[in-house]
Write a structure and sequence with these properties.
Blueprint lengths: L7 H18 L5 H16 L2 H39 L1 H6 L9 H19 L1 H18 L4 H19 L5 H10 L3 H33 L24 H24 L4 H24 L3 H21 L2 H8 L4 H6 L10 H12 L4 H15 L9 H15 L3 H19 L6 H7 L3 H26 L1
Helix pairs in contact: 1-2, 1-15, 2-3, 2-13, 3-6, 3-11, 3-12, 3-13, 5-6, 5-7, 6-7, 6-11, 6-19, 7-9, 7-18, 7-19, 8-9, 8-17, 8-18, 9-18, 9-20, 10-11, 11-12, 15-16, 16-17, 16-18, 16-20, 17-18, 18-20
């Protein structure tokens, strides 16, 4: 049993989590709730109104710093995409796929599979920019709404690919380290669970998506104007040959990026930076051919519009992310060392406390490890709590006399599916921004499929144990 000390900070955080979930169910804005939560955590930890007030601002700054790379990649890709649409090059890029993606059924699965494969090699963040810019227009023409594209990219990329992480192996390395077992054991044990979770979640999501398309529900979901918006000055490059040459050049540039990411083993932020830098050069090159003598002004104008779009999207999320970042070690960074010395962060402490309260058998252990994994994902990272999940799995398996690899893999899947970018609203922002949909609506669309998937996957894990 892992010893953990719960303080008023833990209980305040837990109470606000419950309030936030309730408010989201009621479709209420949660910004003010998060601000009050940050302030009360500061009061409880420091006993100072002035420090707590400062902490609210500093938590916003902290969240902005953490989100800045994502804000910039979304802004730059949006600026590039709008320029490609205005020039007519975008139509040339997607034209080869028109023969394959003829209806929304095919669009959903093709986009998802491509997203999953790219995410295995490069992680979802850079894959989002590539897949979104390439497939979104043609998917919409095939009848798949932008929300459907977002759901597909989200579940296959941030769900299946990130939770399995078979190529880069960052996730299994963290959980295996916490459990004290080889990485290969976690990977092997995760295969049937990943397949179960992936199939159940994507099929259930498609069922609900198909129902919503037929009933017209998706037409009532508010969209955010972004990379899907079209310009009034379309086809500014009149020469079809020139458009095709530039389209091929752009595809080659991004293909070279993929090759460099693979050979140089670029991951996460480095891979995203490579895509972003390439997008800047593509934006500049296309602007020169599109706007000619006005290109210098238009490059700046499009970059500014892209940044305005990025900050417009993330502006509503920063206060929310600021609160949930406090669930990790950020609390000590913002308010000073106010957590107990043996604390691993509020969220992780709550997960440990839950695991200490339950009896040990295969059903309870598997169910608890799923809940613990999901709780550790509430900070929106997905990765911060999975070493703890591995440690808890080791405790449970000792009591059970086996099953450590399966429990570890199950906790890894739960933590990343919840926190890695399918449920937590601020974690789904990259996909939502590229597709021009509301991140909160996207998160709500994912909730039922992910919960059903976790229940079924937990049942399969119980039988394997």
């Amino acid at each position: 049993m892992i010893n953990v000390t719960l303080t008023p900070l833990h209980y305040i955080y837990l109470i606000f989590i419950i309030i936030i979930i309730f408010a989201m169910v009621k479709k209420k804005d949660i910004t003010l709730i998060c601000i009050l939560g940050i302030f009360l955590l500061g009061i409880a930890g420091t006993g100072s109104i002035s420090k707590s007030t400062m902490g609210v601002f500093n938590s916003f700054v902290y969240a902005t710093k953490e989100l800045m790379p994502t804000i910039f990649i979304i802004s730059i890709v949006t600026a590039m995409s709008n320029t490609l649409v205005a020039s007519g090059i975008n139509d040339e890029i997607v034209s080869p796929f028109k023969g394959i993606i003829k209806n929304y059924w095919v669009a959903y699965w093709v986009i998802g599979i491509v997203m999953m494969i790219l995410s295995w090699f490069f992680w979802p963040s850079p894959a989002v920019a590539l897949v979104g810019a390439l497939f979104l227009p043609i998917a919409i023409k095939a009848g798949l709404p932008a929300m459907g594209v977002a759901i597909s990219m989200n579940l296959f990329g941030h769900g299946i690919a990130l939770s399995s992480d078979y190529i880069i192996q960052a996730a299994p390395k963290l959980t295996a380290g916490g459990a004290g077992i080889p990485i290969g054991d976690v990977i092997t044990a995760s295969i049937p669970l990943v397949i179960t979770m992936g199939l159940v979640t994507t099929v259930v999501a498609f069922y609900y998506l198909r129902r919503d398309i037929k009933s017209g529900v998706l037409n009532n979901i508010s969209k955010v104007e972004g990379s899907t918006s079209t310009s009034k000055d379309t086809m500014l490059i009149s020469s079809k040959i020139l458009r095709r040459i530039l389209a091929i050049l752009i595809l080659v540039l991004f293909a070279v990026d993929i090759y460099i990411m693979y050979t140089a083993k670029l991951q996460g932020g480095d891979a995203t930076a490579l895509i972003g830098g390439t997008a800047v050069f593509v934006l500049s090159l296309v602007s020169i051919f599109t706007y000619k003598k006005n290109s210098l002004e238009k490059i700046t104008d499009n970059l500014v519009k892209g940044l305005q779009f990025g900050f417009k999207i993330f502006g509503i999320v920063i206060p929310i992310a600021a609160f949930f970042y406090l669930g990790d070690s950020a609390l000590n960074d913002i308010f000073g060392k106010i957590l107990p010395q043996n604390s691993n962060g509020i969220v992780n402490d709550l997960g440990v406390a839950l695991s200490n309260l339950v009896p040990m058998n295969s059903v309870v252990s598997a169910s608890t490890i799923t809940v613990v994994g999901a709780i550790t994902g509430l900070d929106g990272s997905g990765f911060s709590g999975i070493p703890l999940v591995g440690s808890v799995a080791r405790i449970f398996s000792t009591a059970l006399g086996g099953g450590i690899a399966t429990l570890t893999a199950l906790g890894q899947i739960a933590g990343i599916w919840v926190g890695g970018g399918t449920i937590i609203p601020w974690a789904v922002i990259p996909v939502a921004a590229i597709c021009g949909v509301d991140p909160f609506e996207l998160a709500k669309k994912n909730v039922k499929p992910v919960i059903i998937g976790l229940v079924v996957t937990t049942i399969v894990a119980i039988f394997i144990i």
